[in-house]
Amino acid sequence: LDWTPCGNYGGMGYELLQRHLDITPVRSGDQGPGWQSTGWIPISSFSGTNTHIRIAIEATIGTGPLSDIAIDDFEVNSIPSGAIPGQAPQPGNAVFDINSALSPLGNGVGSGDAGPYVGIVTVGSPFTMSWSSQPSTTVLCLFGPENILSASYPGVGQLDIGTSPLVAGVPSNLFVVGDGAAQFPNGSFLNSFFVTDAAGNGSISLITPPFPPGLLTTFQCVMNPSGSFYISNAVSVVVN
Q1: pTM score above 0.85
Q2: Are 23 and 41 in contact (CB under 8 A)?
Q3: Which of 184, 162, 164, 165 is nearest to 175 (CA)?
Q4: Cβ neighbours, 10 Å, residue 97
């Protein structure tokens, strides 16, 4: 992602900036005889800004007679409700659960369904967060308003919480859940995070306070196994 000057707009002296943003994986090779869809590409981060958007599609072709591309049915419109799936669990790297949460299809996190999942809590009963990754993995647990595909990071996953604008590539209105063992100012930032055990698992449980009924908030984790980063599925918590 980078910005470069590209002249003035309409002779009015306003400098335009051109943003180069790779938003889908690169496709190469024979794609078969059928149509290939990229799905929905969000541009909601520009909402409410005085921004002119120009979309360019770039391709590199070879020299043979079959080396070409074709693009059809390009649309810019509002995204239908439920059209964008949330982040799915990433087994072995980033799986998150709260009170045996269920996916939109009614399955648990072991199903691999796209999220966000929904965990039900009851006032006075256990509120249990659990995660799995690789052994001794640092877990950054976040919470914020549900917002499917608020940000996407190729090879890492997508955040389904937070709001615009993005600040340094990260959504706004995100908050950290610490492990309570070494919080600021006495502990380091990393020491306030959760860490998986020798089997790659971890959990924390507390008694649900007297929250009002309804949606509480949405949680999602970033995990760092073997020096790489992965984003877990999100779980929205509903108080019954």
Answers
A1: no
A2: yes
A3: 162
A4: 22
